[in-house]
C-alpha cells in the first residue's frame, strides 16, 4: 500500500477529537509559514533601508537637504527614515518657534524620535509572538491528540476477548500522526522566531545608536547661531 495513502486513510479513520487536533495544527502551520515569509521580507527590507540611509546620512549630506528628499510627496519613508524625519521635523519646529533653549530643542527632537522608534519596533514585532506561541504549544497539542487516540484504542479492547497488536496498531499509528504534525508545526516556528528575534534585536540596536548619534549632531546645531 502506498505510504501516503495509508497515512491519509489513518487520518480519515481517526476520531473526531484527533482529526480536530490535526486540523488545528495544520492551520497553525500554514499561518506560521505565511508569517515567516512575510516577516523575512519585511525585516530584510528594513535592514536594506537602514544600510542605504546610514550610508547617505554619513556621506556629509546636509541634514536639511536629506529632510527635503525624504519628505517629498513622491517618496514613501520607511524604518529609520521615519525616525530621522520625526526628529528633524520637531527640531526645526522648535527652532522656528524662537526663544526656546537649545537643550529643550534637542530633548523635544529626541522624544519625537523615541516615539517613532517605538512605533517602528511595534510594527516589526508583529506576528513574532504568534510564532513563539505555535513553537511552544504545538507539541503539546499534538501530544494531546496522541494520548486521546491511544486511549480510544485501548478502550476499544474492552469489548474484545483476545487482544492483538493488529487491533490497536491502526489507532496508535493515527494518534502518533498528531504528534508528528505538532512537531512539523513547532520546529519551523521556533527556528524562525529565534532567527527573526536576533535580527530584530540587531536592528533595534542600530536604530537606538542612530538616535543617540543624531542627538549629538542636533546639539551642535542647536548651539549654532
TrEMBL record:
What membrane topology does this protein have? Multi-pass membrane protein
Predominantly, its location class is membrane
Query: Which positions carry the signal peptide feature in this UniProt record?
Result: none
Which Pfam families is this protein grouped with?
MotA_ExbB
GO BP annotations of the record are: bacteriocin transport; cell division; protein import
Looking at the keywords, is Phosphoprotein present? no
The alphabetized UniProt keywords are: Cell cycle, Cell division, Cell inner membrane, Cell membrane, Membrane, Transmembrane, Transmembrane helix
Q: Tell me where it resides.
A: Cell inner membrane; Cell membrane
Membrane-spanning ranges: 16-37, 128-151, 171-193
Sequence ranges assigned to domain MotA/TolQ/ExbB proton channel in this UniProt record: 81-208
Described by its record, this protein's role is as follows: Part of the Tol-Pal system, which plays a role in outer membrane invagination during cell division and is important for maintaining outer membrane integrity.
Its quaternary organisation is:
The Tol-Pal system is composed of five core proteins: the inner membrane proteins TolA, TolQ and TolR, the periplasmic protein TolB and the outer membrane protein Pal. They form a network linking the inner and outer membranes and the peptidoglycan layer.
Sequence similarity: Belongs to the ExbB/TolQ family.
Full protein name:
Tol-Pal system protein TolQ
Q: Which organism is it from?
A: Methyloglobulus morosus KoM1
